[in-house]
Design brief:
Number of domains of chain B: 1
Largest sheet of chain A: 8 strands, antiparallel
Number of domains of chain A: 2
CATH superfamily of chain B: Rieske [2Fe-2S] iron-sulphur domain
Oligomer: heterodimer
Radius of gyration of chain B: 13 Å
Shape of chain A: globular
Number of strands of chain A: 21
Protein name (chain B): 2Fe-2S ferredoxin
GO molecular function (chain B): 2 iron, 2 sulfur cluster binding; metal ion binding; monooxygenase activity; oxidoreductase activity, acting on paired donors, with incorporation or reduction of molecular oxygen
CATH class of the largest domain in chain A: Alpha Beta
Keywords (chain B): 2Fe-2S, Iron, Iron-sulfur, Metal-binding
CATH architecture of the largest domain in chain A: Alpha-Beta Complex
Helix content of chain B: under 10%
Strand order of the largest sheet of chain A: 13-19-18-17-16-15-14-21
InterPro entries (chain B): Rieske_2Fe-2S (IPR017941), Rieske_2Fe-2S_sf (IPR036922)
Helix content of chain A: 25-40%
Pfam families (chain B): Rieske
Distance between the termini of chain A: 5 Å
Chain lengths: 448, 115
């Protein structure tokens, strides 16, 4: 078990699980009976079962491209940010060569979380327990009372566990524990077109403003990831009161907006994006709308992007990164057990925007999405309601329906990849099709 | 213009209740709901909610509005106007008069919005 390892130190004890060493050998569940992605049926146990959740940690989060941070969070060597890959804590930091490197945030000595700050700047990561200290390249620099260790103890064998693959796409930093994974860009594929409508409006690129908003929800992480991939359907119902508050008449949007046409993209790698299509698609925050030169954007991104995914819409990059272009919300759905999500949300703006426009977008974001956003609260409530009752045996035995728009997916000649109508579960079916495939495929750490 | 239809005595429809006049009887394309509103007056709208399939006659009459029993869209009984999400399209109105204790419905005769 060496060649495919992210780091030879992982599993170096070679747990003898088959011989009954005491640690339970992970049992891999065949999830194909739980997902009918062609027929649009989902077994509810995928949101509640603890063994399935543990398998997701091994086979989804330990081998998928996971969003970590934005490049503008790191300016100087030593700048760091702590986050999670699945439930694994990691430190994202800039080394002396200004390269972004990602380490497991756990001391190699006794396993304490090495860095407890959310973000900051440092010269060294020093453990608060016994004082083992690691430099920005992850190397063990200092061991108090080192002379007491035997001659066989070599500090170079106790570097931080490093995430072997770190790649960026237009400012977004992703990491992957699988050193043989397809490149990030290959994995994103057609999804890049939809992401560009948010990430590439400004030739200068994007930046994040403010801190990271974090809040907890009762609910399985897939409920949120799936909704952002596939669910425009809930908007008029779930968000009726918010839409009324924001509409000029106070009664909600006009008929042609409430029943908008649009497209929804679902990819074979599980990514999804949906968006209304309208010749006058615009940004909701007035100052942001006034700031943009839509003719310039049409030339830069193309008419179809400007009239579609550039403004109002939703998207998920499999497994747990989602975004909303209209308000610049980018977020990760951190799994915290099968029934809990920790949401981490950043606000993304264009670098070239004047400060007052950035402020306007940030305030619009806070009003609508985020822990106190008038739309966000509706969504969290729905997910938590699903989760709260899922422990009932009968409840958990009844499949859920993802059948809207079955068979409508096609290449429409305008938008890349397979798309369906906006009101559809097509991207949800694609999300779960990919989820099932990955869950049923041994990962790098399982092969000899 | 249609002739008026006598749909019965004012006492036949309690305040806060509504009666459906089937399309065949009204000579219209759609069923009509005649409401006895809380202001004591009678109003008529197409019975089907403009949002999705639902009978407004089964809804909740509050003041001079009716709330759809399915998705809680509200319509003004006087003008038919959609007052909130998820409805965005007005319901069609039909003129109603009370003459000598009888409720007279004028199918397909719209009511001008009352100030």
């Amino acid at each position: 078990m060496t060649s495919a390892k992210a780091n030879d130190s992982i599993g170096a004890l070679r747990r003898n699980l088959d011989a009954g060493s005491g640690a339970a050998k992970p049992r891999n569940i065949d999830v194909s009976p739980l997902i009918d992605s062609d027929g649009g049926l989902i077994d509810r146990s995928i949101y509640t079962d603890r063994e399935i959740y543990a398998q997701e940690m091994r086979r989804i989060f330990a081998r998928s491209w996971l969003f970590l941070a934005h490049e503008t969070q790191f300016k100087k060597p030593g700048d760091f940010f702590t986050t999670f890959m699945g439930e694994d804590p990691v430190i994202v930091s800039m080394d002396k060569e200004k390269k972004i490197r990602v380490y497991l945030n756990s001391c190699r000595h006794r396993g304490v979380r090495l860095c407890r700050a959310d973000a900051g700047a440092t010269k060294m990561f020093t453990c608060t327990y016994h004082g083992w200290s690691f430099d920005l390249a992850g190397a063990l620099q200092s061991v108090p009372n080192e002379t007491a260790y035997p001659d066989t103890f070599k500090k170079e064998n106790w570097s931080l566990i490093e995430v072997p693959r770190v790649e960026t796409y237009k400012g977004l930093i992703f990491g992957n524990w699988d050193k043989n994974a397809d490149s990030l860009e290959d994995n994103l594929g057609d999804m890049k077109y939809y992401m560009d409508a948010m990430l590439d409006r400004d030739p200068e690129g994007t930046e994040v403003v403010g801190g990271v908003m974090k809040w907890e929800l009762e609910g399985n992480w897939k409920l949120a990831a799936e909704q952002f991939a596939t669910d425009w359907y809930h908007v008029n119902m779930s968000h009726a009161s918010a839409l009324m508050v924001l509409s000029p008449t106070g009664k909600g949007p006009k008929a042609d907006i409430a029943a908008t046409p649009g497209r929804q993209h679902g990819s074979e790698n599980g990514h999804g994006a949906g968006f209304p299509t309208h010749p006058k698609s615009r940004f909701d925050a007035k100052m942001v709308h006034d700031y943009y030169d839509y003719d310039f954007l049409r030339e830069r991104l193309g008419d179809d992007a400007v009239e579609g995914p550039m403004t109002t819409g939703h998207a998920t990059v499999f497994p747990n990164f989602s975004y909303l272009p209209v308000n610049g919300s980018i977020r990760v759905w951190h799994p915290k057990g099968p029934d809990k999500i920790e949401v981490w949300a950043w606000i993304l703006v264009d670098k070239s925007m004047p400060q007052d426009v950035k402020d306007a977008q940030r305030l619009y974001n806070l009003r609508t999405f985020g822990p106190s956003g008038i739309f966000e609260a509706d969504d969290g409530e729905n997910w938590s309601e699903i989760q709260a009752i899922s422990g009932g045996f009968v409840t958990n035995s009844v499949p859920l329906n993802f059948q809207m728009g079955i068979g409508s997916e096609r290449e429409d000649g305008t938008y890349p990849g397979q798309t369906s109508e906006l009101y559809s579960d097509a991207a949800g079916r694609a999300f779960y099709r990919h989820w099932a495939k990955v869950m049923n495929t041994p990962a790098w750490h399982e092969t000899n | 213009m249609s002739e008026a239809i006598n749909i019965g005595s004012v006492d036949d429809i309690d305040e806060g209740e509504a009666k459906v006049i089937p399309a065949a009887e009204a000579g219209t394309e759609d069923d009509i709901a005649v409401f006895h509103a809380e202001d004591g007056n009678f109003y008529a709208l197409n019975d089907e909610c403009t949002h999705e399939t639902a009978s407004l006659a089964d809804g909740w009459i509050e003041g001079t509005e009716v709330e759809c029993p399915v998705h809680s869209a509200k319509f003004c009984l006087k003008s038919g106007e959609a007052m909130c999400m998820p409805a965005t399209i007005a319901a069609r109105t039909h003129k109603v008069e009370v003459v000598d204790g009888d409720v007279l419905l004028y199918p397909n005769v719209p009511v001008a919005e009352q100030a």
